[in-house]
Amino acid sequence: MPYRVTFVCTGNICRSPMAEWVLRHHVEEEGLDVEVDSSGTGGWHVGDGADQRTVAALERAGYRSAHIARQFDAAWFDGYDMIIAMDASHEKALRSMAPNWQARGSIRLLRQFDPGAGDDLDVPDPYYGGRDDFDLVLEQVEAAMPGLLKEIRSALEDR
């Protein structure tokens, strides 16, 4: 059974699909048995593709991308080993949906995996910004990947 990870942001068109495709790239490269996807706390963009600026940032960095936005459903908690919020508002929304302490324990903030993040654990929403804002999000996502991959490898070894 694969290890399952999902990323959650607001509308599932900017931050979470970016993190999804960066992690997908790394787990595929390493041949890890991990399934990765993403969703949003809100349903405004359900059925839409990723924001074109997200796709462009990913492509500039050499990542693939294909995405259809969806909204996180509380019934999904049992299906994931790790649920990764992109900022504190997403973490709070997920915790309020969690059916029990075990589900709440699966929720993490992405930047918790970046030792250089300090106290600023929110990945900023680039939606109302420009190219530089999307590139910053990609930098923050990439900075968290080594720590996240270490945690995933450890969990897979413990299985």
What is the overall shape? globular
Distance between the termini: 10 Å
Spatially, the strands of the biggest sheet line up as 2-1-3-4
Mind telling me the CATH class?
Answer: Alpha Beta
User: What do we call the CATH topology?
Assistant: Rossmann fold
Number of strands: 4
The amount of beta strand, in percent, is 5-15%
> What's the rounded overall pLDDT mean?
97
Largest sheet: 4 strands, parallel
Question: How would you portray this structure in words?
Answer:
The structure is a single chain. The protein has 159 residues and is an alpha/beta fold. The chain has one domain: 3-Layer(aba) Sandwich (Rossmann fold). It has a 4-stranded parallel sheet with strand order 2-1-3-4. α1 packs across α5 and α2 crosses α5. The chain starts with a strand and ends with a helix. Belongs to the low molecular weight phosphotyrosine protein phosphatase family. It holds the Pfam family LMWPc. Its EC number is 3.1.3.48. Keywords: Hydrolase, Protein phosphatase. It is an enzyme of class 3 (hydrolase).
